[in-house]
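Reminder to self: keep the SMILES exactly as supplied, no canonicalising. Ligand is adenosine-5'-diphosphate.
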Amino acid sequence: MAEGGDGRGSEDRNLEEPILVPAKRVDTGAVAPDPSAGDVVAGYALLELLGKGGAGSVFKARREADGEIVALKVLAASKVKRARIVQRFFDEVRAASSVDHPGLIRVFDFIEEEHPRRLAYVMEYVQGEALRARIKREGALDLRTSIQIAIQICDALTSLHEHGIIHRDLKPENILIIDVPGRAEPRVKLLDFGVVKFLPVDRTQPSRTDEEKPGTFVGTPRYMAPEQAAGATVDMRADLFSIGVMLFEMITGRCPHEGDSLRDVVLAKLKGAPRITMNPEKEILPQELTEIVDACLQLKPALRPERAFRVANALREADMVLFAVGPIRAGQARAEAERAEKARVEASRAASLRAQPPTPPPAVRPREPVDTADTPPLGVSEPPALAPAAASGPSNRLVWLLVAVCVLAALALVAVWQIRKSQAAPVFMLNPEKSRAAPKGEVEPTNTSTTP
Ligand SMILES: Nc1ncnc2c1ncn2[C@@H]1O[C@H](COP(=O)(O)OP(=O)(O)O)[C@@H](O)[C@H]1O
Ligand SMILES: [Mg+2]
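Structure tokens returned for the bound complex:
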């Protein structure tokens, strides 16, 4: 595993801090102490500290000459004698001032003071909030806001890349978010060009900024591409990996590669990023979005998109889907779930009809509550499930009914026969007198012939 070249072990490294390569000390005389709010530096009154990092401090400042509010980044006194870091500071200013894009911070001036020595530069002041602070406050961001922020980062990055500059330290701390009254989507400013790499104009030449020594790297572990962490040559696709990490983080509120140490994070990266397919709290993610995040987070640069504008295009498509057909897609998903449930109910019903008594198949057993209770209204009512006893009932009942009818009929016949038998005499005895006189059972057939 590659390790940063600043001498610290991997375990005690802050994963949000950039790692700077080793620097040689240069003796250039006295160094000015680090300034604080209230001091004046080269005609700029420092109003408040905006941020402090490994390389220096950023102040909100007022230019005394005209009262203009600006931001001033001052190189830390402890770094002023480190040649490599000083070179990076020059590169930072050069990169920021050579590309003009609304998504990139604008640099106005460079300050180099001697006796005592101090290095600083002046840039536009942005009244915004670092993306880091926003994620910390809100967790996962609104989906369309996340996409729009990423589109703007990609647009700024496209411009930077076209000038042959790779940022190499894209992370939420280096993105400022500006809420514009009356506009739904915020504006974005990309800053901190502290570890940029200049690609050679002639690709056969080595890059203008030296490649890192083998076994060293610059960047911020959580956001840097695996090849950057390995100290290998990086190109624009390293920045696209960082975009993938930030998109993942904005959408889900967590990093794709979890881990508390540099080692864990790198190992997690080598395993690959977990896919984001669905944000259960919010909308269903458009496929265009999940695909581009997956593509950016590919371990091998060759499998990532080649250019930032391709990522921006995919994100614009995803944004259009969300804007235009997002709710429909969500509705479609629900309709599909309903169709699947209906098909399942039909299959279960068919299975119950095929079932032979007395042992009905499991399909006709009473259903689990989850199958129906959570199902949204389908417009199709499911027939009540049949209990095993009831399943064989109708035919048995019929048999018993027939038997009962037969028995009753037989009884009725017997009864009729009995009645007729008991009434046989009067029927044939046309003379009631005789009938009464004649002893029971004695019927004189001859009497009949004597009837008048
Ligand atoms: N031009 C600016 N306007 C407003 N805030 C800024 C500006 N530049 C930097 N900041 C704030 O200062 C912090 C540190 O600045 P940065 O250039 O990233 O320094 P570092 O190299 O120490 O990380 C940023 O995260 C941001 O919050
Ligand atoms: Mg920074």
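Points to follow up:
Residues 50-51, 53, 55-56, 58, 71, 73, 105, 123-126, 130, 173-174, 191-192, 194 surround adenosine-5'-diphosphate (ligand 1) (CB under 6 Å).
The two ends are 138 Å apart (CA to CA).
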